Amino acid sequence: MAEFDSISQIGFSYIEQLKSLQEKKNLNEATTKQELKQEDFFSLLTKQLAQQDPFKPVSNDQMIAQMASFATVDGIGRMNSQFEKLNVSMTSNQALQASSLVGRNVLVESMVGTKQDGEGMVAMVQLPQALDNLFVRIEDKAGKLVRTLEIGSKPAGASRIEWDGKDENGTPLPAGKYRVRASGLFNGESKEFNVLTYANVNSVLLGKGSVLLNLAGFESPIRLSDVLEVSKS
């Protein structure tokens, strides 16, 4: 008989634990859903006035401070809501403007560009200072050198580099990805410089708070803000 009492007590204790856990869960859900609004504040304020000590009433300064605090919190909440709406609106406008880029070439910071069949490639090189002789190496996707271009002297800043899409023997190379490397003597030492290439915009995506572009030859989209230039052609 004592064994059955022990089992009964264990079962009762288990049920009580389940009830306690459920009550805590309900309380947490209710707390999460609670949100003080303006009507709640005025209700609390009315009850405070009705239940205050008539011999020690709340001073005007305290009342004004409470109302000012609530007004500040309420104003910040409204302002955050307006900023969120503004951000969504701006992102939508950017996406609409970016849709006009589909089919056009944009300049991005990447040494790898995509060559179309029967065409060449255009790149930009950022030079920290004027150079007497700039060299450009064109490599295929396997890293093999297919063409060396002796550009000559270039001023500081962005310089346009054009490759006709042919190898050293003048044979047109197939379409695909090619890497552009630029180098020259900088302060007496050989140095590689930053290269930018053009890519065609395939489509536009609307990401989390930003506009993304799918570019031909790129495995992942880039942000619209990373576009440095839009080609006129």
From TrEMBL:
<dbReference type="Pfam" id="PF13861">
    <property type="entry name" value="FLgD_tudor"/>
</dbReference>
<protein>
    <recommendedName>
        <fullName>Basal-body rod modification protein FlgD</fullName>
    </recommendedName>
</protein>
<feature type="domain" description="FlgD Tudor-like">
    <location>
        <begin position="93"/>
        <end position="227"/>
    </location>
</feature>
<dbReference type="InterPro" id="IPR025965">
    <property type="entry name" value="FlgD/Vpr_Ig-like"/>
</dbReference>
<dbReference type="Pfam" id="PF03963">
    <property type="entry name" value="FlgD"/>
</dbReference>
<feature type="domain" description="FlgD/Vpr Ig-like">
    <location>
        <begin position="121"/>
        <end position="183"/>
    </location>
</feature>
<dbReference type="InterPro" id="IPR025963">
    <property type="entry name" value="FLgD_Tudor"/>
</dbReference>
<dbReference type="GO" id="GO:0044781">
    <property type="term" value="P:bacterial-type flagellum organization"/>
</dbReference>
<comment type="function">
    <text>Required for flagellar hook formation. May act as a scaffolding protein.</text>
</comment>
<dbReference type="InterPro" id="IPR005648">
    <property type="entry name" value="FlgD"/>
</dbReference>
<comment type="similarity">
    <text>Belongs to the FlgD family.</text>
</comment>
<dbReference type="Pfam" id="PF13860">
    <property type="entry name" value="FlgD_ig"/>
</dbReference>
<keyword id="KW-1005">Bacterial flagellum biogenesis</keyword>
